[in-house]
Amino acid sequence: MESVAFLQGLPGWVILLIASGIALAGVVVTLLFRSPRRSPGRSADDVPTTVDREMQKNIARLESDNAALSHLFQLIPGFTKKMNSRIERREIPMEAMRVLEQLFAPSQILVFLLEERVGRFSLVKQMGLPPDFSVSFQVGFGEGRIGWVAQHNVPMDLDDFIREKRLAGANMDVPAHFQFKVELCAPMSHEDKVRGVISVGGITRHYKHEKAILSLVADLASIALYNHDLFARTQEMANCDGLTKLYNKRFFLEKLSNVLVDAGRGHHPFSVFLFDLDNFKHYNDTQGHQAGDEVLKVTGELLRDSLRPDDIAARFGGEEFIVLLAHAPADGAMQAAERIRTRIAEHAFANRESQPLKIVSLSGGVATYPDDGLTGSDLIASADAALYRAKREGRNRVFASKPKYFSDEAEDTPYKAKTG
Question: In angstroms, rounded to a whole number, what is the distance separating the alpha carbons of residues 380 and 68?
């Protein structure tokens, strides 16, 4: 009973491989010990020769299958361990290609991943296509062999494609796919959701259960994708403000510390832009806190749309926001800050005419490393001082912090100051 329970607990692919090994062993025993039969017209001397040839042929085939299974057992544990570790998303297709290249020795491997925003599969990694082939090539559900496998969520080989085309009339041939050698194809599926498709062509090393082996690799890769996305979502929830979807203060300060270390090593500048919304308490009091929350939410959206990929924006507290402008010297940072200020001022927030300036606006300050501070707290303090000067000067403007030795009169310099 314990043996039965143990077998029931094993994954299906392990049971399949064990069963294959037992079957192969049984065939060898049968070939070795069965009695030769003499056919009519054959002499007694001819029979052993014929049996020997048949036996040698079967033994060679069994040895080939055994070598293939041994090769599989050598590769899969390491691949499984890699897929279950903290692996970057971009490394998952690369690792899948590496193990498939060693397993099948193919001339072509294609890895497509689903882009949920557009509902199509993008070619993210490939081997065997011309150098000028677009890496951003996309395939839709049901489009060609790749799309058919994605739509029906089943592994397919050449015989399956031919049978499906002949019996069901499926259109497997797409002109744009003529360079694809789709001999063996499997969906990267987890929890009934197809996250990608893997195709192998020009195979030179074959296996008895090729579809099951490719499906195993694809399933492990899809689990790795799922785990990575789940961790990213969990991390985002922990590091982000729930209302604005920007990073929170704690995460921003951690990032700022890392950027300071890198900037110190590379001696390159970066800037911090600190701002808050003008007269936000007045908007909350006159329009209600729900309307005020909507203003904060939209401000977060406008801020995200105004930044470069390497910039980091966070809600610093209440109606206060902060932006780390990567590799931005003072002039470039002021231009970026002014673009954000203009975009907020021009946005048609609900009932903005009720505000003292007749718009929803911001006041902000910019500080640049290393001129305005060598530590995170110094940079934020310099930006904060510039922000409060913008408030005193009439709001709806951005000031740049300047070192004291640049001017004996003022610590901050206005940048295209405008009143609302």
Answer: 62
Give CATH for domain 89-237.
Answer: 3.30.450.40
Contact of 181 with 108, CB cutoff 8 Å:
yes
- As given in the structure block, the two tokens for residue 111 are 């890895």
Based on the number of CB atoms within 10 Å of its own CB, is 303 exposed (0-12), middle (13-18) or buried (19 or more)? buried
- Summarize the confidence of residues 92-106 as an average pLDDT: 92
pTM for this prediction? 0.58
What are the residue boundaries of the structural domains of the chain, listed by start? 1-34+45-83, 89-237, 249-415
Q: Which amino acid belongs to residue 197?
A: V
Give the model's confidence band at 268: pLDDT under 50 very low, under 70 low, under 90 confident, else very high.
confident
What topology does CATH give the domain 249-415? Answer: Alpha-Beta Plaits (3.30.70)
The answer to whether the beta carbons of residues 163 and 193 sit under 8 Å apart is no
CA distances from 344 to 235, 347, 353, 361, 396 (A): 29, 5, 14, 6, 10
pLDDT digits (tens, 9 = 90+) for 149-159: 999 999 999 99
Question: 144: phi > 0 → left, psi -120 to 50 → alpha, else beta; which?
Answer: left
If one counts every other C-beta atom within 10 angstroms of the C-beta of residue 352, the result is 18
